[in-house]
Amino acid sequence: MRKISLERARAGLYVARTIHSLDGIVLLYAGSKLTEENIQHLKSYNITEIYIEDELSKGIVVTDVVREDIVLDVKAKIKTIMTTPSLKISVDGKKIMELVEKLLDNILNSDFIIANLSDIRSIDDYTYSHSVNVCILSLITGIALGIKGENLKDLGVGALLHDIGKIMIDEKILQKPTNLTINEFDEVKKHTVYGYEILKNSNDVNSTAHIIALSHHERKDGSGYPYNLKNNDIPLPARIVAIADVYDALTTNRIYRKKMLPHEVVDYMCSLSNKHFDKTCLDAFISHIANYPVGTAVMLNSGEKGLVAKYNKNFPNRPVVRVVIDENGKMLVKPKEIDLFRKPEYRIVDIWDI
Ligand SMILES: [Fe+2]
Question: Which of 94, 96, 281, 302 minimizes the number of CB atoms within 10 Å of its CB?
Fold first, then answer.
C-alpha cells in the first residue's frame, strides 16, 4: 500500500485502509473501489490523504506503532473527557491513566518503535488527534531516554493533557485563520497557566503532568513562555513534550497553513537544537522518527525512483526502497529492492509524486 493525496486520487483505485471521520464513523472501508462520488464525500469531511493498494505498492505494509483501533478509541475517550463541562474545574486522573497505559502497552509490544503518525485524519479533529499523537511521541522519546515505570506513565498523562488549558481560551481566537494580534497571542499563552491550575485541582494527577501543562512552551534559550525558563530549569518531561508538540503540529494540516513533510520538520527542528530544544531529547526523538514513512515515494541519489518498502530496525532513515523507475525515467518491468542499510552508497535525496 502507499499514501497519496486525495487531490491525486482517481476513480477505480482501491482503498487500502479504512477511512474514519472524527467521530470514528467509517467513511470508506479498506478494499473499496474509489468512485468520483466518494472522493467528493471524503473531501467534504476534510480528508486530505488516503492509502491505496496498487500494482506498484503490492505487498508493502504500513504498520503503526499503536494499533489504529486503539488510537481511535483513545481519541474518542479523550474527546468525551475534554468536552465535559466540569472539566473547567478538574479531570479524572484515573481515567486518563487508563488511556496512557493502553497506548504504552501497545508501543512496548510493537516490533519497531518508529513513529508513523503523519496519518490520515481530518483537519477538524486536530485537538484530539494532536493530544493522542503528542502522548505517543512523548512516550517513545521517554523510552528512548531510558525513562521507565511510573515516571514514564506520568509523562504520558501530562503529554495527553498538555493543552488542556485551551478549553479556557475563546474558540474564536484558537480557530482564527489569520495571524493573531499581540493581545490575542497573550491570551493564547495563558493556556499554560490555566492547564496547570486545572490539573492541580484534579484528583490522581501527578505533579509531572502539572509541570508539563505549565512549561511545554518554554524554550532552552529562554525565548518561550510563560516564564522564559532556560536550559535545565525547564523540567525534563516538559522538554520532551515540547518536541513532540512542535513535531506533530508542523506535520499536520491546519486551517492557516499546510503541513510540512516529516523530513522537512526534522531538518527545521535540528536547526533549533540547543536553541529551542534540548539536544539529548531531540536526538532521542529523531532516532525513532521515520523521515520517509513506509509507502512514501522517494528519489535516490542514483536518480532511481521508488517506494519506501520497509524499515530497518533502529535505522528508520536507511529503509529498504522498492525501485520502480530507473535512472533514465523508464518504468521497470520487474521492480528491484535496494536495502539502504546494506548499501551505504545510496541515499534518499527527495520525495516525488506517482
Ligand atoms: Fe500548548
Answer: 94
Domains of the chain are 2-53 (3.90.105.10), 88-105+120-286 (1.10.3210.10), 297-351 (no CATH)
Helix (H, G, I), strand (E, B) or coil at 30: coil
How many alpha carbons fall within 13 Å on the CB side of residue 207?
2
CA distance 107 to 130: 17
298 and 292 in contact (C-beta within 8 Å)? yes
- The rounded distance, in Å, linking the Cα atoms of 270 and 283 is 9
Give distance in angstroms: CA of 217 to centre of ligand 1: 6
CA of 191 to the centre of ligand 1 (A): 7
> Is 230 within 8 Å of 222 (Cβ atoms)?
yes
Q: Is it the case that residue 22 has pLDDT exceeding 70? A: no
Q: Ligand 1 centroid to 80 CA: how many Å?
A: 20
Percent of the chain with pLDDT over 70: 94
Cell of 191: 493556556
Distance CA 234, CA 221 (A): 10
Q: 241-285: per-residue pLDDT in tens?
A: 999 999 999 988 777 777 888 889 999 999 999 999 999 999 999
Quick one: which of 1, 3, 10 has its CA closest to 251?
3
Q: Tell me what percent of the residues of the chain surpass a pLDDT of 90.
A: 64
HEC readout, 273-341: ECCCECHHHHHHHHCCECCCCCCCEEEECCCCEEEEEEEECCEEEEEEEEEEECCCCCEEEEEEEEECC
